[in-house]
Specification:
about 140 residues; 6-stranded antiparallel beta barrel; two-stranded antiparallel sheet; mainly beta
């Protein structure tokens, strides 16, 4: 439905997490929505945060088991947030800084993807539904 615009054009330069992306970039990211879908942005300005689903189109798709550098041990792809996966769908919860429905442009806090990454969907973040305070990863 559009593209995500960030400063990173090379996989080696792209941050490995949304936290790292925000630490490295002073600017916000821009989400460009294709013309047929722009009316779907109406009312989104009421949300403080959005969920972005995007397609990591330059990621490898052939690993089911990986050994991430930061862990030092092997784990299954579905136990990781790595973009290397059979279907490289990424999810980011990010602060919505601005909405221009007519131009089809969202301004959001920085995200960890390459410039031009295809956007799959945008959803408003609802704390009462999406937040799980007792969740853990052990």
């Amino acid at each position: 439905i559009g593209r995500v615009r960030t400063p990173w054009r090379d996989r080696d330069d792209c941050p490995r997490s949304i936290r790292a992306a925000r630490e490295r970039a002073d600017d916000a990211a821009t989400v460009e929505i294709d013309a047929p879908y722009r009316p779907g942005l109406a009312g989104l300005e009421r949300a403080s945060h959005v969920i972005l689903l995007y397609w990591m189109d330059q990621a490898r798709r052939d690993l089911v088991v990986q050994r991430p550098r930061h862990l030092g041990e092997t784990r299954g792809t579905f136990a990781l947030r790595s973009p290397v996966r059979p279907n490289p769908i990424a999810l980011a919860v990010t602060r919505l800084l601005g909405v221009d429905v007519e131009a089809g442009r969202l301004t959001v806090e920085m995200v960890d993807c390459l410039d031009g990454t295809p956007l799959v969907d945008v959803k408003p973040y609802h704390p009462s539904i999406d937040s799980v305070p007792e969740a853990t990863v052990g």
